From TrEMBL:
Protein name (Swiss-Prot/TrEMBL): 5-formyltetrahydrofolate cyclo-ligase
Residues passing through the membrane, by range: none
Catalytic activities: (6S)-5-formyl-5,6,7,8-tetrahydrofolate + ATP = (6R)-5,10-methenyltetrahydrofolate + ADP + phosphate
Enzyme nomenclature, EC number: 6.3.3.2
Pfam families, sorted: 5-FTHF_cyc-lig
Cofactors (names): Mg(2+)
Record family assignment: Belongs to the 5-formyltetrahydrofolate cyclo-ligase family.
InterPro entries tied to this protein: FTHF_cligase, FTHF_cligase-like_sf, NagB/RpiA_transferase-like
GO molecular function, one term: 5-formyltetrahydrofolate cyclo-ligase activity
Keywords: ATP-binding, Ligase, Magnesium, Metal-binding, Nucleotide-binding
Length: 213
């Protein structure tokens, strides 16, 4: 039996429930604060952030460490004032790179990834997030871009609280190269990482690379 348990799987019984509850409550409050701060950006400010992030990503995704070859890179379709990286998705597709997007196909389960091209007819998925249709090929990405609601100097990420990226990364072997993408102002002293939280390899903001494993 024991041999069948993934040694990297965290033991929920080893987590102090009171502490976990406090962290969850704190994260909910921080998500709300960070969401409001992001919403308050003007359109020109938001565009400048997007442009800087795309320049940073072009540099990172062209670098040797990630491999400039045939890797599949998962982006995200922007919701809730997230920086818009779609121009880079289009440019990379035109340059012959394979682009994927994440989908919640089953609640509280790992994300699924499907290929995207500029011709893909997006449809509404869980949480109203635009996603590729079921006939888009399912793939496993080599590089995953994860939008950041918040981040810390140890490379940990705060998302929307569904635990989707953590669940997904825990299930993938080998683990994809993880790039957290978000606002410099969304930095937190710590997100109080819990056993289920999987750190990013790189955190990229409009200032450039903030954290690199
Ligand atoms: N643009 C974009 N696409 C993305 C993500 C993202 O962060 N940004 N995701 C990144 O993961 C995934 C979707 N993430 C989701 C995260 C939470 C919930 C959700 O239902 N949240 C509940 C609270 C959940 C809970 O506390 O257990 C809610 O707000 O009601 C849905 C989707 C995949 N696609
Ligand atoms: N590997 C996992 N297995 C089972 N449950 C998990 C796993 N990872 C996270 N969770 C659950 O998801 C919940 C939310 O996690 P967390 O606060 O880290 O979300 P998040 O990273 O902000 O969300 P998202 O990635 O969806 O944007 C956790 O309380 C935990 O119960």
């Amino acid at each position: 039996m024991a041999a069948e348990v993934d040694p990297e799987y965290f033991d929920p019984l080893a987590v102090d429930p009171e502490e976990a509850r406090d962290v969850a409550r704190w994260r909910t409050a921080e998500r709300k604060r960070l969401r409001e701060a992001r919403r308050a950006l003007s359109a020109p400010e938001r565009n400048a952030v997007g442009d800087a992030l795309m320049a940073g990503l072009e540099r990172l995704l062209g670098a040797e460490a990630v491999g400039a070859g045939d890797e599949i890179v998962s982006f995200y379709w922007p919701i809730k004032d997230e920086p818009d990286l779609r121009p880079l998705m289009t440019a990379m597709h035109a340059a012959g790179r394979r682009i994927a997007l994440p989908l919640v196909e089953t609640r509280a389960a790992p994300l699924v990834f499907r290929l995207w091209t500029p011709q893909t007819r997006m449809q509404r998925g869980h949480w109203n997030i635009p996603v590729p249709p079921p006939d888009a090929p399912e793939v496993v990405p080599d590089v995953v871009l994860a939008p950041l609601m918040g981040w810390d100097g140890a490379g940990y990420r705060l998302g929307y609280g569904g635990g989707y990226f953590d669940r997904t990364l825990a299930a993938l072997s080998p683990r994809p190269f993880r790039i957290g993408v978000g606002l410099a102002s969304a930095q937190l002293p710590t997100i109080y990482p819990q056993p289920h939280d999987i750190p990013m390899d790189v955190i990229l903001t409009e200032r450039g690379t903030e954290v690199s494993a």
